[in-house]
Amino acid sequence: MTKVLSFDIGGTKIAYAMIDEGGNFLNEIIKVSTPKTAAGVVELLKTTAKGLEDKIDGVAISTAGAVDQEGTRITSYTGNLPEGYNQTDFVALSTKPVLVENDANSAGWAEFSLGAAKGCRNAVILTLGTGVGAGIIVDGHLLKGKSGAAGEMHFPIDSGNKRICNGCGQPDCFESFASGTGLNTNAHEYMGAEATSYDVIRGLRESDHQARAAFDKWQDYLTKGLIMLANIFDPEVIVLSGSMAKFVEYDKVSTAANAKILTQPFVLKEAVFENNAGMIGAALLLIDKLKHKS
Amino acid sequence: MTKVLSFDIGGTKIAYAMIDEGGNFLNEIIKVSTPKTAAGVVELLKTTAKGLEDKIDGVAISTAGAVDQEGTRITSYTGNLPEGYNQTDFVALSTKPVLVENDANSAGWAEFSLGAAKGCRNAVILTLGTGVGAGIIVDGHLLKGKSGAAGEMHFPIDSGNKRICNGCGQPDCFESFASGTGLNTNAHEYMGAEATSYDVIRGLRESDHQARAAFDKWQDYLTKGLIMLANIFDPEVIVLSGSMAKFVEYDKVSTAANAKILTQPFVLKEAVFENNAGMIGAALLLIDKLKHKS
After folding, report:
1. How far is A52 from chain B (nearest CA, A)?
2. In this complex, is the C-beta atom of B256 within 8 Å of any C-beta atom belonging to chain A?
3. pLDDT one-digit tens code per residue, A198-211
């Protein structure tokens, strides 16, 4: 049974565990604060991998940022990680094989391999959190693009210079409407400057009209994005993950989107894996690669 | 040298010629009016193929409509072709191997194999005509989706129920802004009810302000679509083909789009092949398939 050490590297926490080819955790997940320097991050990964070297077949890393086709280095933007982290020589972290992959891609691969998109050949896994990320599966392969940056969910979905996207800096961008941040902006617009997305969700339960309007607007823009993804990719399934996924009215949104597409109907599902999808997906990508080579 | 008979099936004309593996035409292209019935179309294809049977290795067909993964049958919508055409048993048209592919996909494959996207692994070929079509190449493969319908360029790009798309029936759709039909609508909006896209193009040459405004609006929406495609696919190149492609200000549009994307810069190019791209691409797809099998 192939086993790998898998890391999930975030701006505030780094999580890791050993994972087998069935996606099972072989120990409890360990979480530590992300070191403040790139050298600190490298040291942490190296020392941890070294300590487990005789128990593992490789090291998998799920991270922010675009990752090259070979799964060896970061090619761009890594958000709130320490300066210099982009230059990390991941392959040198262990004597065992190392694979690094973008976190949204890793999470998508987990859902495709063992989760809500299992058995599909074409799937989009959208992560709806502070921002919006996507892992896209085309004919059983991860969509990477020329520099590994494919799947950026930033595109104009409105006009009139509405909002400015935190992610891409552009107005009218999908992310600024369909993310948790987008729902928060709707809260301000419909419920007052002090209101937040939490007030929207609570208001929904209390049948508050303003909360309903704020939420419907959020779902309308999400639906617009799903129409685009369904028409462009013709996927069997679109999976929603991330902190916002549990609030989506799946039947309603799915019916609205499927009524407006030219391709064949898709199924809208909630993700199976939660916060650990990235660790699992990166582990499975590495294990697939190891098996393919042997 | 492998040679195939290749058809381009349109609502008004059917064109055909023999094409070799270098994409060369081995005879002058023959054009005939599209028969009024599906049986008439089948008869035309069958008789033509039969007459050339001893000179060809297979029959390729570029057509409207989504085509299945195997390249054997149409799975949906074929626009203005005769009723019943969708049910055509293409494989039965000849004793030689037959391959059918969607026209936008075929045109995309021609540009990818021998045209403006040659040497790329990830490319989008947009056809800007009455509507907008796309052939999308992902890591050297044609993007097909679960039912062969992927690449439908229909997605909301605005709000406020502006326009209704002829292709998908929805308001605010990309096609209704970035197609030739879209430019025509801009002509009405900026230059009066009698004006057409031809007046816009002529007005541009005469530095007419209203024509410039109508054209800039058209290019702005095209740019929005390019931003989406670049962020989603991270392609090396986006190629523009179709009747509108020659009017695009490539440097201006490319600079505007590349300034707003999160992925690495893409190159914007005009297509090499014109009206015959579909015939060439379908022929090359079949020849690739024949070689792969032997």
Report:
1. 36
2. no
3. 999 999 999 999 99
